[in-house]
Amino acid sequence: MKKIFSKPEALKSASHLYCPGCGHGIIHRLVAEAIDELGVRERTIAVAPVGCAVFAYDYFNFDVTEAPHGRPPAVATGIKRVMPDKFVFTYQGDGDLASIGMAETVHSANRGENITIIFVNNANYGMTGGQMAPTTLIGQKTATTPFGRDAKREGYPMKVCELLSSLEGVSYLERVAVNNPKNVLGAKRAIKKAFQNQIDGKGFSLVEVLSQCPVDWDKTPQEAVKWVDEVFMKTFPLGVYKDKK
Fold this sequence. Notes:
Layout: H1 24-38, E1 44-48, H2 56-59, E2 63-66, H3 72-82, E3 87-93, H4 94-100, H5 102-111, E4 116-121, H6 151-154, H7 160-164, E5 170-177, H8 181-199, E6 204-210, H9 214-217, H10 221-235, E7 239-243
Parallel strand pairs: 1-2, 1-3, 3-4, 4-6, 5-6
Antiparallel strand pairs: 5-7
Helix pairs in contact: 1-8, 4-5
């Protein structure tokens, strides 16, 4: 019988430690599939930060280096400039990228660095107990906003794709999700396109992935995927926010 589905070569044979229903495992597979299909595994270097994304080096079957909290775009920039033949991407959560790492994100984008960022947005600090993140929704309850996020007190959710879309150095921005099969296929297409842009030397690309976080959202996995559709996407609409030809 012909095998039509198997583990990507770019993934290690390891059981992941993510919570039940978490989207990270799905996103890892999509990244690995895209790398295999593009034939760049042997020259890939990923950069992982602090947070749930830090486990990337346990699961990806290629070189992964760590960066201080929020600094992956700066580290990726250094690697890519020193070794321009390498394929370099960062894998970051919202607390890392949109909070302490916002300056690195904005300036690497503005310079048009030829790197790729996979940005996982689950609207909270997942690893440390579900505190409010820059992307937490108005009214959303977290460990540090037990009565819900209040715009007057904590400000508004940070919309990274919309923010970066005005920068001349940006080549490609798209927001996707992994809460159902259709969206998973769309996320795979966007990730592969962003990776291809780097191979083609088109400059900075970022794919924002809305990811369910059932444990810190205090929901079942089934409730979490439904919440992405019914609530999350109203604040963070899916779509292409920039595609420079």
